[in-house]
């Protein structure tokens, strides 16, 4: 596919080393890996991810989603997932791009072009769809603006607008509409997620989460589970453990202090739940990560 080769060449140029590369183009991030990576725990924000070369997978609650040059990924809420590059070599590295999705920009397009605003049944906030030639062309033009920084302010919004429009009118339209619509179930779950993220190290208060989402406890639990594949309490636990891991790996805290900092009162409970999620006790896991830090960079 000519567009795929062109996009791969651009990403290789502007992501010359392994890891995550922020760009001057708003909402655009590039990724490169010259080898398959170990499973990486990280947060995926609402975003559209496209692969120009190689293959990536993420796991959420036992389900595996694989995306490559033929399939793109969309995530509609902040999700703690396990990701890994599964196909990459020195000569043909994994090359990907992520566009963070702006709900206000999506909603403006819905209104301006009178697109379908009906809310579909709630579903898991991760979806795959075929990557079209039109989408590859638009992404190639967006990444290509990195060659002309003086044009980014004027032209990047136009290329991004085309990508958002194609998302709203393509195979993933139903999921994308949920991000754009303020009163959709996805948006209500997003408000609950935002509360949990801001208070993850505090005692869990279901009534406050429900108030933030404007949903009853039964409705919130059901829709939260459908969208994220976990309960609100399990979501909080993932956030706590990921933050504790960051603190330990960066040498900012020892294991006991890190556990207390994220809200655990019992060191033994913290160590037990940490090992269950990451596969090793805190100190051993941190030592492994410090030896292979590049594995923790590819989260998009």
UniProtKB/TrEMBL annotation:
Task: Provide an example Pfam family for this protein.
Answer: AraC_N
Q: Which UniProt keywords apply?
A: Transcription, Transcription regulation
What Gene Ontology molecular function terms does this protein carry? DNA-binding transcription factor activity; sequence-specific DNA binding
Recorded protein name is AraC family transcriptional regulator
Please verify whether the record's keywords include Transcription. Answer: yes
InterPro entries according to UniProt: Homeodomain-like_sf, HTH_AraC, Tscrpt_reg_HTH_AraC_N
Please name the PROSITE patterns in this protein's record.
HTH_ARAC_FAMILY_2
Domain HTH araC/xylS-type: residue ranges: 190-288
Q: Does the keyword Aminoacyl-tRNA synthetase apply?
A: no
Q: Which PANTHER family does the protein's record reference?
A: ARAC-FAMILY TRANSCRIPTIONAL REGULATOR, TRANSCRIPTIONAL REGULATORY PROTEIN
Q: Which SMART domains match?
A: HTH_ARAC
């Amino acid at each position: 596919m000519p567009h795929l080769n062109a996009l791969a060449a651009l990403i290789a140029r502007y992501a010359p080393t392994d890891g995550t590369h922020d760009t001057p183009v708003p909402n655009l991030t590039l990724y490169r890996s010259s080898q398959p990576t170990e499973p990486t725990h990280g947060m995926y924000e609402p975003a559209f991810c496209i692969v120009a070369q190689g293959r990536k997978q993420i796991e959420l609650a036992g389900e595996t989603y694989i995306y490559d040059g033929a399939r793109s990924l969309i995530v509609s809420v902040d999700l703690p997932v396990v990701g890994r590059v599964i196909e990459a070599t020195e000569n043909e590295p994994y090359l990907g791009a992520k566009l963070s999705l702006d709900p206000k920009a999506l909603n403006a397009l819905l209104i301006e072009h009178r697109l379908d605003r009906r809310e579909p049944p709630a579903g898991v906030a991760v979806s795959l769809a075929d990557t079209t030639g039109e989408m590859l062309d638009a992404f190639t033009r967006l990444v290509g603006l990195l060659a002309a920084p003086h044009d980014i302010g004027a032209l990047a919004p136009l290329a991004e607008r085309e990508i958002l429009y194609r998302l709203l009118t393509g195979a993933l339209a139903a999921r994308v509409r949920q991000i754009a619509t303020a009163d959709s179930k996805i948006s209500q779950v997003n408000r609950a997620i935002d509360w949990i993220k801001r208070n993850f190290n505090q005692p869990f208060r279901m009534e406050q989460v429900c108030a933030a989402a404007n949903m009853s406890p039964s409705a919130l639990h059901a829709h939260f589970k459908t969208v994220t594949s976990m309960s609100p309490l399990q979501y909080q636990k993932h956030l706590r453990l990921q933050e504790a891991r960051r603190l330990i790996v960066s040498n900012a805290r020892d294991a006991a202090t890190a556990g207390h900092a994220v809200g655990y009162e019992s060191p033994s409970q913290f160590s037990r739940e940490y090992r269950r999620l990451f596969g090793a006790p805190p100190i051993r896991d941190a030592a492994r990560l410090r030896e292979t830090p590049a594995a923790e960079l590819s989260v998009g």
